[in-house]
Structures are given as structure tokens and as C-alpha cells.
């Protein structure tokens, strides 16, 4: 029997690691895993360049050549690998090797478990889908967006809930439970023999709600291919901000054209299905459009979500941002709005915007919600 540790190394190293088995064959399960890995990573052209693959042939597990299709491959990896590995393999399939039938083949779509990588793949390839396939793909969009919304909505609600005051309250709510005062005032009820503190009277904070004036929050989202994560999270963030007291939310998508998606903000699934990723970028044109929407400059936040690779006029963009800042508008330049907040962007243009008063950086959606709440609550 082959040592499981040696088999794992063999799977990591591929065909180049055959020597580590000492002439022994892979077990049936390890051979199936090897075939599944080779179906995907065996198409890497760099293997031939580095001489890893002898004679230009790929490695295969088991007794015969692999005859895997996308459908059987998905079934196999679901059976052979843990969920985290399956999601990584699916992500590599659609992003690294552009195996589009992972999200365009009806038979495949009926099998896949929705996850963020597949959502991005659907958004990038939905223009290739016929209406029947698009209906199946929409399931992925709906599931992942629902999960993101549930998670982010909690952060947004917390950001917009009033600060706790230090005075007591008659209203008993678990989130306002005053632990310190309750313990201090009930120490007389501590029983040594039980090693327990018995609560005779619980105490609670009051929660004051900030006075809020109406604010405009204008999200300008770059649709270029590198901004897919930010597009998704911007749609979900806008949906969570929609309808909050004191906030009127706009969502504008742009490439070389500008599309106002505000009418669909309350339905992020429908909104994302309308987004067209890719194409050029005219940031100045989008900021000009946002400037026309502003009603009260000193109660407006413009969040420009872009990698700042401008295809239009950099000079016009800088001038417009300067004008917005001078009239009292809060301008945020966000090179990323997603859960990692780890951007790649044109630092030179970003610095020019910062020099005229914009706040430039990257945020998670929760951080953006906190920033908006702090501005609205002033």
C-alpha cells in the first residue's frame, strides 16, 4: 500500500514527482484525484517550456487515459476534494484557463454549487449565453448575492444604529445589556457554594439615535474587467444603503459610457445582470455626470470606485474633482470596494486626485458604510 503522505506529495508535484513513490502505483482514489488535477492544470503551456511534461504529453491517473468532460470533472472534484479545494479548482477553471462551459453549459450549471468565483464568471460570460442558459446562471447570481447581502446588511445596520449612551434605560434589549453595572449591582446575590451570580435586577443602556439630515451618496463604479469584485460589492452595498433614514443612494456604472442604475438599486441581482464588464474607461465623464446629480454639495458623498486608469481626460477629471471638493462635497476615490480591499491601480492619477482634496484608498463595504454613517450623523 502506498504511503498517503507520499501520494499527497505526488499529487502536488505532478508527473515530475513519480520518483517519490519508489516505483509504487497511486491508489485508485489518488489516481482519480490526479486525473482531475491533470484535466485542469495539464493544459498549462508553461509545463512544456519548463520540461516538466515529457514529449508534450500530460500525465493521467488510473489505468487508462483520462476521458473527463467538464460535467464529469465537476462531479469528480465534488466527490474527491473538500469544498474549499473545489471552489479553488472552479475559480482556476474559469479565471485562469477560461473554461467557459463551467458557466455556459446547462448540464454543468445544474451541478455547480454557487460561489463568488462562479458569480464573477457569469458576469463576464453572460453575453455568450442564450436565454435558457442565462436563466440557469441567474441561480448562481441570486444565491451568492443573497449571501453577500445578508452578511453586509448586518455591518450596515450596526454602522447606522445610534451610539449607546451611558445612562440607564427602561427598555430591555439584549444588544443594550449593561454588563458592568448589572454585575456590580448584583454582587450581593453571589452564592459561593454554587459559584454563580444570580441576577435580581438587570440593567440596560439607552441607545440614542443621531439626528440625520438627508444626504446623497453617489457610487460611481468602473465596469472595467479588473474591477469585477468591486462591481459586485458596490451593487450589494448600494442595496444595503437603499432606504436607510437620511440617505438617498445613487449607483452609476461607467466605461466609456455612463449608465445610471439607480432604479435597480433595491434589486442587486437584476442590477448585476445589466452590468456590462470590460471596455474602455472615461472616468472624467462619469464624475461630470455625478456632479449634475448633486443637490446639496455639503451633504453629498461621491465615491468613485475605479482603478484610475483613465482613458479620457485626466486634466478634466482632476478639475472636476477639485470643484466638487471646493464646494464642500466629500469625494472618495476607492481603488477597491470588496472584502479584501487590496487594490491595483494607477498611483500617479490617484495622487493627483488626493492633491486636490479627494480621500483616496481602498475600503471594505462595511468600512464604507461606517464612513457614510459618520458623515450622516454629524
TrEMBL record:
The organism encoding this protein is Micromonospora kangleipakensis
**Record-linked Gene3D superfamilies:** von Willebrand factor, type A domain
The protein's name: VWA domain containing CoxE-like protein
- The VWFA domain, residue ranges: 214-373
Q: Which InterPro entries does this one have?
A: LolB, Uncharacterised_CoxE, VWF_A, vWFA_dom_sf
SMART domains, sorted: VWA (SM00327)
Q: Which Pfam families does the record cross-reference, listed alphabetically?
A: VWA_CoxE
Amino acid at each position: 500500500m502506498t504511503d498517503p503522505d507520499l501520494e499527497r506529495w505526488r499529487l502536488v508535484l505532478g508527473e515530475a514527482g513519480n520518483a517519490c513513490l519508489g516505483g509504487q502505483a497511486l491508489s485508485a482514489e489518488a489516481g482519480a484525484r490526479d486525473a482531475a488535477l491533470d484535466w485542469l492544470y495539464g493544459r498549462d503551456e508553461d509545463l512544456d517550456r519548463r520540461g516538466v511534461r515529457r514529449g508534450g504529453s500530460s500525465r493521467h491517473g488510473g489505468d487508462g487515459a483520462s476521458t473527463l468532460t467538464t460535467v464529469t470533472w465537476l462531479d469528480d472534484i465534488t466527490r474527491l476534494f473538500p469544498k474549499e479545494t473545489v471552489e479553488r479548482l472552479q475559480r482556476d477553471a474559469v479565471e485562469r484557463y477560461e473554461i467557459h462551459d463551467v458557466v455556459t453549459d446547462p448540464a454543468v450549471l445544474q451541478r455547480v454549487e454557487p460561489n463568488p468565483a462562479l458569480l464573477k464568471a457569469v458576469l463576464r460570460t453572460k453575453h455568450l449565453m442564450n436565454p435558457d442558459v442565462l436563466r440557469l446562471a441567474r441561480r448562481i447570481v441570486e444565491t451568492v448575492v443573497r449571501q453577500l447581502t445578508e452578511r453586509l446588511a448586518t455591518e450596515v445596520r450596526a454602522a447606522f444604529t445610534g451610539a449607546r449612551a451611558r445612562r440607564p434605560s427602561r427598555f430591555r434589549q439584549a444588544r443594550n445589556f449593561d454588563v458592568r453595572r448589572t454585575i456590580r449591582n448584583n454582587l450581593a446575590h453571589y452564592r459561593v457554594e454554587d459559584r454563580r451570580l444570580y441576577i435580581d435586577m438587570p440593567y440596560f443602556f439607552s441607545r440614542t439615535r443621531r439626528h440625520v439630515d438627508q444626504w446623497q451618496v453617489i457610487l460611481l463604479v468602473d465596469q472595467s474587467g479588473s474591477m469585477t469584485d468591486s462591481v459586485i460589492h458596490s451593487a450589494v452595498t448600494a442595496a444595503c444603503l437603499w432606504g436607510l433614514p437620511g440617505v438617498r443612494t445613487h449607483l452609476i456604472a461607467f466605461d466609456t459610457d455612463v449608465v445610471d442604475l439607480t432604479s435597480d438599486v433595491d434589486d442587486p441581482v437584476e442590477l448585476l445582470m445589466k452590468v456590462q464588464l470590460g471596455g474602455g474607461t472615461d472616468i472624467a465623464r462619469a464624475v461630470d455626470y455625478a456632479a449634475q446629480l448633486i443637490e446639496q454639495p455639503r451633504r453629498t458623498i461621491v465615491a468613485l470606485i475605479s482603478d484610475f486608469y483613465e482613458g479620457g481626460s485626466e486634466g478634466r477629471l482632476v478639475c472636476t474633482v477639485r470643484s466638487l471638493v471646493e464646494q464642500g462635497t466629500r469625494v472618495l476615490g476607492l481603488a477597491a470596494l470588496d472584502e479584501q480591499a487590496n487594490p491595483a491601480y494607477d498611483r500617479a492619477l490617484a495622487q493627483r486626485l488626493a492633491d486636490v482634496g479627494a480621500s483616496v484608498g481602498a475600503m471594505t463595504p462595511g468600512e464604507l458604510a461606517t464612513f457614510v454613517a459618520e458623515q450622516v450623523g454629524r
